[in-house]
Amino acid sequence: MNTDEIEKYIELENQANQLIEKIEKAKNCDAKDLKWWHISNYLENNNKIVLVPLNKNEFSNIIADTYGIYGLTLKDSRMAMICYNNECIETRKHFTIMHEIGHFLLHKNNQTYPSLMQENDYTEEDKIFEKEANMMAGMLLANKKAVQSLLDDRKPFNYLCKYFGISKPALKIRLFNLFYFQTLEQILNEEKEIKDLYAYSHKTINNYIYYNYKLTIN
């Protein structure tokens, strides 16, 4: 982890916040009240995006996959078609839709972005794109302002999951990322020598969240 990754995270967060602010103005509401469907509806109405629910057999008519597929973004110069696996549980569908919207927002070249259940077939470039889309999905599903508001109100972890329509593993990653880069930046600025940066940051973040919000994310 280095300053380049901090800068990338900040760049992604700024893009997510800019979109949230646009939707706030369009719907005349506060970010803490926005849910995943507000985002998808806004982009469908304003950015020539079509959301298409498909089952596994229908996916096989579009792309050949061996392991199964969560979602797919097909882009050209006119529009984007975002397909998602309608046989998955609801929280997985929500994450997939936001993940594919992440591809639409971040990766401007016109090509196909499959979200595979197993990542064996990803190139190194694919892995970078997938990581960015995953981060963006977390930021859109549980936007920073809403997360902070619920934490300030001491809402329990399960409440947050239901509020955002997000799975427990996805929310754990979102909360970790939300505080991780702030902690990392402080470590780098203070030039601390840490053998296991991830473990140190994880412990620091867990302690911080529990101390301030009485919320455990282990």
How would you portray this structure in words?
The protein has a 4-stranded mixed sheet with strand order 1-3-2-4. Helices cover 61% and strands 11% of the residues. The chain has one domain (3-213). The protein has 218 residues and is an alpha+beta fold. It is built from 9 helices and 4 strands; from the N terminus they run ααβαββαβααααα.
For the secondary structure, the number of strands is: 4
Rg over alpha carbons? 18 Å
Category from helices, strands and their pairing: alpha+beta
Tally of individual helices? 9
Task: Return the average pLDDT rounded to an integer.
Answer: 83
The shape, in one word, is globular
Percentage beta strand: 5-15%
| Share in helix | 55-70%
Biggest sheet layout: 4 strands, mixed
Low-confidence stretches: none
Give the tally of structural domains: 1
Order of helices and strands: HHEHEEHEHHHHH
Pfam family, one: Peptidase_M78
Domain IrrE N-terminal-like: 77-175
Protein name: IrrE N-terminal-like domain-containing protein
Coiled coil: 2-29
